[in-house]
Amino acid sequence: MKLLHTVDILIILLYLITIVVIGLVLRKRAQQSKDDYLLGGKSIPWYMLGLSNASGMFDISGTIWLVTLMFVYGIKSAWIPWLWPVFNQIFLMVYLSKWLRRSNATTGAEWIGTRFGFKKGAKLSHIIVVVFALIMCLGYLAYGFIGLGKFIEIFIPWEIVSNYMPFAVSPEFVPHFYGIIFTLFAVFYSLLGGMSGIVWADVVQFAIMTVAALVIGYLGFQAVGEHILNVPENWMSPTFGWKLNMDWSTIIPEVNQKIQEDGFGLFTVFFMMMVFKGVLVSIAGPAPTYDMQKILSTKSSAEASKMSGFVSVVLMPIRYLMIAGFAALALIYYEKLNLVNSAGVIDFELILPTAIKEFVPIGLLGLLLAGLIAAFMSTFAGTLNAAQAYLVNDIYLKYKNPSASSVQIKNMNYLTGIIVVIISIILGLFAKDVNSVLQWIVSVLYGSYVGANILKWHWWRFNGEGFFWGMAAGLISAGIVPELFPEVLGLYLFPIILIISIAGSIIGTYSAPPTEEKVLLSFYKNVRPWGFWGPIKDKLIAENPNFKENKDFGIDMFNVTIGIIAQTTLVILPMYIIFRQTIPVYIAIAILVICAFLLKKYWWNNLKEEID
After folding, report:
1. Sign of the C-alpha dihedral, residues 92, 95, 101, 106?
2. Which H or E element spans position 444?
């Protein structure tokens, strides 16, 4: 049995000590004020926030999932993250980050006051956003928790640990035990250092992952050059027909069962549903988690846009060099991999940790493990910070103790953080696997969020009551609908939940008067969204003839389209590089150059006018 070398263990310990030091060093600054703790004082440069956001998305559970997808589906796996949807970052880059940052809010729930005011409907909306945010944060924490446990299980065999344990642990709960241990480190630096501590720890983590990704990509590239790759006929193509038509029966028969379980066989139907859901989710804006907190932490609306764009530029090439490298190594040396988990079942989500254990040399193994453990901590810490923001800012300070001292706020941040962690660990204990939690979050829970959050940006008549009842109807249906159709893939339940949520939004809207006119005028003047704002726009123009409405819908959609093409190319290009596909590499580079020119001219240059 191959165990970790002393050098690798020392590297991991060095990393863990580093993040503890970061938390201690930044503790004093984080305690200066609420904004310093939750938003880093809105003084962190956009490129550091972008690296931090990218680092948070370079999570261990997601990487496990993406390596598994590429192993099974090849280049076509580039489309499947649209389930998330990964291209929501492009909508944020082009216009939504600007709109959100102009609010000057601390959290998504606080933003509600800028849109709906502070009467009954706004209070109901505030409560439902806090509830949704906490459910979303707990879901993400459980998702990261189970992924980390599966990962660590490969490197620290339970047979060794169990000899020192005073109690027995069932085999299926072994990953959860490991998840709890490393969760405690993430809790330490995120609780002490706040947003600044999270950002600096994320930058360290991303530097580690970049080095590891380049080395893994090189190892995969070399392996492809020295061996014949045995994959299905259309594995190397991003195109697809009505059905996936990918047959592994003569290569690795178990993979066909995996495809059937995933429910991706009718790939065109799956793809159309992904695009339909992905566009709506993206238009709705960011969910109230760590991504929104990073946007609200930027210095200005222009920097918010730059930060969101920078995420894709730094994340996609680096992450997919690693993913493609590991997929290449796993395909070529599949016979050496042991994908049987502690419960005695073949688990393709073990491809990543098993490949690391088998192929990564001493020294780099410790660096890579430190980076991937850090990836979990980054996601966990950012999500925990968002949950704390909602509990402290939107419940404690709003309803319980509005005049709390800095010491009281500090203690409440610590207390709420510990409570959230305990609840997320309990939820993680009941999670089946990474994919099951992911499907629930992105397909079912997001369905409850979309309808009300699209209407809040684009329809002046939409009010707090409409927002509350839309979100409430969606959340209730998100709990009931999956139970009624247990065999249906979560993605295909999305339209049902969406329709219920929109119905709740419209009925709720017309059950109460419109939002106060002065609130709507202030919101429209500051945020300047496009959409159905006719009556409000006319009143503003009557008051100030120089006021100009936002007529950028056309150019925004053009930039979104070009941005999605560029982002997808940044995903596919590293894949083709690792698998030595020369002509597709040249085509991808040409597409990127054209996209970069268009975005520079029609997006970046226009940001000069947006500096606050």
Report:
1. negative
2. none
Element (H, E) at 612: none
Task: Show the tokens assigned to 14.
Answer: 């060095």
CA 81 – CA 61 distance, rounded (Å): 13
Place of tokens 């106060």: 516
Amino acid at 129: V
Residue 24's pLDDT band, with cuts at 50, 70 and 90, is low
Reported as a pLDDT band with limits 50, 70 and 90, residue 1 is very low
- Does the bond joining 85 to the residue before it have cis omega, within 30 degrees of 0? yes
DSSP 106: S
DSSP 130-196: HHHHHHHHHHHHHHHHHHHHHHHHHHS-HHHHGGG-SS---GGGHHHHHHHHHHHHHHHHHHHHHHH
More confident residue, 519 or 13: 519
Digit-coded pLDDT (tens) for 283-307: 988 766 666 778 888 888 999 999 9
Q: pLDDT digit string (tens) for 588-600?
A: 999 999 999 999 9
Contact 482, 137 (CB under 8 A): no
Quote the CA–CA distance of 315 and 210 in Å, as a whole number.
Answer: 9
Give CA torsion, residues 212, 313, 330, 252, to 10 deg. Answer: 170
